[in-house]
């Protein structure tokens, strides 16, 4: 999918494809250079071989006696190059991706600040209970604070439909083969979402305990959810995700009598990789721990914010 995440497969580049993500059925093709070299997002390598060209000029990659280009048809190119050259190219691409994403995230953060909004990036593996918790949270908080949601999934609008059924605004982003949301996708969604002043904006990231941790969305805080059905070793197995989080929610604790999960062991592992992480156990089904979750949200809402921004216009 993408080199930054480390989850790329073969280097077959759909040149026009996945830098665009569908926002509620509409394809967005951002002008930023969010290029992934290993597929999933639009490739950074584009040139035609229908003409002769001189390889003595500064080219985007190093040619090697064993390097090879095989064109399978319009829009794709296979790249096989010497390992050292490929590694240098990956580093350059990753640096470009993350630098551009950080620039766009800063713009999102300024927009949120201008609205007095609190944006929370919810990350987890599939099936942790993100959407179920969001539905319960919206139902309990909507009388006190405006709440809206950006939903990220590879396919379908099932989760956005569940959120809209509560009366809250939701925008669905479908990433296709993409494994995470990025700052441009969030920026594309904001005008449609049109969050009101003072809103809590939940960003439900694509279900994945690896890739979302590498991309700043402009959020106020990062929340990682881990259900007791997933195993108490996950903070060490997926250390970067937990190292980047402000809060870990241990979800589905009503199932603790039925699963081999040690909350104290899991919490110790999380603090080993991130001593500053806050940890809250809860159940969206039984309601246990929800008051502490809502208090945490309220504390985030009242924290000092950066300088205001006029918004997206």
What does this structure look like?
This protein has eight helices and eleven strands. It is an alpha/beta fold and 313 residues long. It has a domain at 117-301: P-loop containing nucleotide triphosphate hydrolases (Rossmann fold, 3-Layer(aba) Sandwich). The strands form two sheets. It has a nine-stranded mixed beta sheet with strand order 2-1-7-6-8-5-9-10-11, sandwiched between helices. A two-stranded antiparallel ribbon has the order 3-4. The longest helix has 33 residues, at 83-115.
Strand order in space, largest sheet:
2-1-7-6-8-5-9-10-11
N to C succession of SSEs: EEEEHEHEHEHEEHHEHEH
Identify the CATH class of the domain at 117-301.
Answer: Alpha Beta
CATH superfamily of the domain at 117-301: P-loop containing nucleotide triphosphate hydrolases
- Assign the CATH topology of the domain at 117-301: Rossmann fold
Q: How many individual helices?
A: 8
Q: What's the CATH architecture name of the domain at 117-301?
A: 3-Layer(aba) Sandwich
Q: How many extended strands?
A: 11
Average pLDDT confidence is 81
Binned, the helix content reads: 25-40%
From the helix content, strand content and strand pairing, which structural class follows?
A: alpha/beta
- Strand fraction equals 15-25%
Q: What does the radius of gyration come to?
A: 21 Å
Biggest sheet record? 9 strands, mixed
Inertia-based shape: globular
Low-confidence stretches: 8-19, 29-79, 306-313
N-to-C CA distance: 34 Å
């Amino acid at each position: 999918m993408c080199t930054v995440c480390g989850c790329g497969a073969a280097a077959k580049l759909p040149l026009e494809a996945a830098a665009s993500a569908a926002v509620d059925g509409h394809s967005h093709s951002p002008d930023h250079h969010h290029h992934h070299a290993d597929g999933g997002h639009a490739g950074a390598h584009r040139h035609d071989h229908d003409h002769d060209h001189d390889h003595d000029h500064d080219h985007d990659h190093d040619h090697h006696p064993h390097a090879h280009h095989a064109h399978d048809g319009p829009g794709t190119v296979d790249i096989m190059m010497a390992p050292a050259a490929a590694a240098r190219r990956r580093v350059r691409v990753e640096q470009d991706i993350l630098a551009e994403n950080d620039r766009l995230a800063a713009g999102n953060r300024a927009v949120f600040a201008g609205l007095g909004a609190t944006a929370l990036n919810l990350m987890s593996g599939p099936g942790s209970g993100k959407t179920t918790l969001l539905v319960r949270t919206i139902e309990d908080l909507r009388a006190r604070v405006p709440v809206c949601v950006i939903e990220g999934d590879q396919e379908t609008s099932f989760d956005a439909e569940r959120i809209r059924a509560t009366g809250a605004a939701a925008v669905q982003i479908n990433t296709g083969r993409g494994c995470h949301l990025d700052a441009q996708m969030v920026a594309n969604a904001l005008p449609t979402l049109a969050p009101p002043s003072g809103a809590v904006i939940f960003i439900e990231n694509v279900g994945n305990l690896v890739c979302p941790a590498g991309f700043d969305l402009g959020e106020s805080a990062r929340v990682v959810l881990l259900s007791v059905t997933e195993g108490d070793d996950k903070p060490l197995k997926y250390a970067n995700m937990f190292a980047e989080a402000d809060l870990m929610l241990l979800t589905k604790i009503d199932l603790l009598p039925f699963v081999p999960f040690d909350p104290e062991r899991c919490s110790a592992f999380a603090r080993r990789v991130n001593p500053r992480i806050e940890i809250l156990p809860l159940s969206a089904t039984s309601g246990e721990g929800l008051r502490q979750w809502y208090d945490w949200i309220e504390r985030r809402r009242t924290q000092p914010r950066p300088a205001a921004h006029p918004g997206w216009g």
